[in-house]
Specification:
mainly alpha; disordered C terminus
Length: about 250
């Protein structure tokens, strides 16, 4: 009986082995799906100092200087443009670092009232010669553009930093030395602007490269500052009276 039982077990095991050998083996598992790398688009470059993406940078002249309102000036005009810059600084530069600007400005125009009055009168006469009867409108427009140039708000801090240094020299400058003082002070006051123009052109190049690779930004308005800057000729600001800062 034991042998018959063992034989049956052997037959069953052999049948199962034969059956298993006759079955088709299962297919291998499918290869893993390729890993899809997420496509990351870097943010588009933004203008320096939070300026507007619509800012117009003055062109470079043959002499390497920017074509701004401070070009091609005589000594008296240079002095007057420096005075305007210090006037804007006295009005707009606030905080402990700039507290002395109002006093320095008032001292500067008090100490040099005759020279500054002469500069202003000479500029007015030049407009009279060049323009004729409509000179006053053009003179006022020029003064507005001059004040607006110095009032470019994205550069408020670096401009104020320069102005407070210039003002300390202004109050100890004698009238006989005003021409030399102004000739040195004007490019120093302009330095934040010339540096900004270079940085803005670098931003424009970076933005152009970004657009070539990624296309136009989805929302162009996001590339400008939250407060849109007006161009100098669009802004209106009264000019100061000689010898009195515009504090009202």
């Amino acid at each position: 009986m034991l042998r018959l039982k063992d034989l049956r077990l052997l037959l069953i095991a052999g049948g199962l082995a034969t059956l298993a050998a006759c079955q088709t083996p299962p297919p291998p598992p499918p290869p893993p799906a390729p890993v899809v790398q997420p496509q990351y688009t870097p943010r588009a470059p933004t203008p320096p100092f939070g300026a507007s993406a619509l800012t117009v940078v003055p062109s470079l002249r043959i002499d390497g200087l920017r074509d701004t309102i401070n070009r091609d000036l005589g000594p008296l005009e240079t002095l007057w443009h420096v005075r305007a810059a210090l006037n804007v600084a006295a009005l707009s530069c606030t905080g402990p670092l700039y507290e002395r600007l109002v006093g320095d400005y008032n001292a500067f125009i008090t100490n040099n009232s005759a020279s500054l009055r002469n500069a202003n009168n000479a500029i007015v006469r030049k407009f009279q010669r060049d323009i004729g009867s409509g000179y006053k409108v053009e003179h006022d427009r020029h003064q507005t553009q001059l004040y607006n140039y110095w009032s470019f708000s994205p550069l408020r801090r670096p401009f104020c930093d320069q102005a407070v240094q210039i003002s300390q020299r202004a109050i100890v400058t004698k009238s006989a030395d005003l021409d030399d003082f102004a000739a040195q002070a004007l490019p120093e006051l302009e330095k934040p602007f010339t540096d900004f123009y270079l940085a803005y052109e670098e931003y424009q190049r970076a933005l152009n490269a970004w657009q070539v690779q990624y296309g136009q930004p989805a929302d162009p308005s996001s590339q400008s500052s939250s407060v849109t800057e007006q161009s100098p000729t669009e802004m209106e600001q009264p000019t100061a009276e000689l010898g009195q800062p515009m504090l009202d």
